[in-house]
């Protein structure tokens, strides 16, 4: 087991009817910027609940955060904060709104010349406006972590940054807010949580059985609960279990003391930036290719995964490896997600293009940090 430190001060408030508690969690006399996406919260009642709960707080609003939050939109929100003197951000939405809130919070306090440097150069974040969240789409774990991913359409990039300064002070997790999600958003969220988990698990043995078994519990729960919630969107227990899995998949707990991969995420971000593929869908496309390409180096953990998550016990090792990868791919398909590049009209030209973009940034990815242009091209060709 590797050395580690763990710090997570986010207060979680989980369960139905919990939105009303935000008035107890936001500091008194705060000037609140209410941040949200395309307006679905005004149709499903979450907006009204938030406004009622905010009561006497001074409230300003900024809507229109995109599914892959754009840098230019975020900077407009920064300007709104400066105009209104907002000193607290309440993000209401899914991971995209929360990710945007984190960048906005950091950019509003950034002392450099160009806030994009936070993402492109990892310029240090020394301060940020405090954030609270009402989660409406479980997927990214952004409600309980320090990470954020922002897109820049003008530059054709989708980049990550992280800072403890942007961890949410609190997050409200009410599963009832997810009832109205379209099936594809629910499915993408399930896949996102699944891949977050395996990126911290399907690497190589690190003598940390606790983290392994916690990861396996999340994976088995997603496999069991995913079909239930797609069959019955108002199944509260299934919604609650998926929401809790998504939070635990990326709140930092699974990565303690173990090697992590993230190759599928890095490659998937390029597919989103170039072709507009949904984030969860991009992961469902790429991860099986990573596993096929890296099956020998991941062999021990993939065999363990097949046995403990899918109950695969018969056949040779190679047959069990094949079955584990195939069952994973079939699970994603059962959620209604196309797992091949061709399912989304993406041709072979994309394989070399994505690989070159990563090479131009001198990125070597995977748990061994040695997958370069050649390997990324090969991985994507496996998913045509």
Question: How many helices?
Answer: 15
Instruction: Report the strand count.
Output: 8
What fraction strand?
5-15%
In the predicted model, the low-confidence regions spanning at least 5 consecutive residues are none
- Percent of residues in helices comes to 40-55%
Overall mean confidence score, pLDDT: 96
Structural class: alpha/beta
The separation of the N and C termini measures 37 Å
Written description of the protein model:
The strands form two sheets. A six-stranded parallel sheet has the order 1-8-5-4-2-3, with helices on both faces. It has a two-stranded antiparallel ribbon with strand order 6-7. 47% of the residues lie in helices and 12% in strands. The chain folds into two domains: 11-177, Rossmann fold (3-Layer(aba) Sandwich), CATH 3.40.50.1970; 181-381, Dehydroquinate synthase-like, alpha domain. The chain is α/β, with parallel strands linked by helices and 384 residues long. It has helices at 22-25, 40-43, 46-54, 71-84, 95-107, 117-120, 183-199, 209-231, 236-249, 263-275, 279-293, 299-310, 317-334, 349-360, 373-381, and strands at residues 11-14, 31-36, 58-62, 88-94, 131-137, 147-152, 157-162, 170-173. The longest helix has 23 residues, at 209-231.
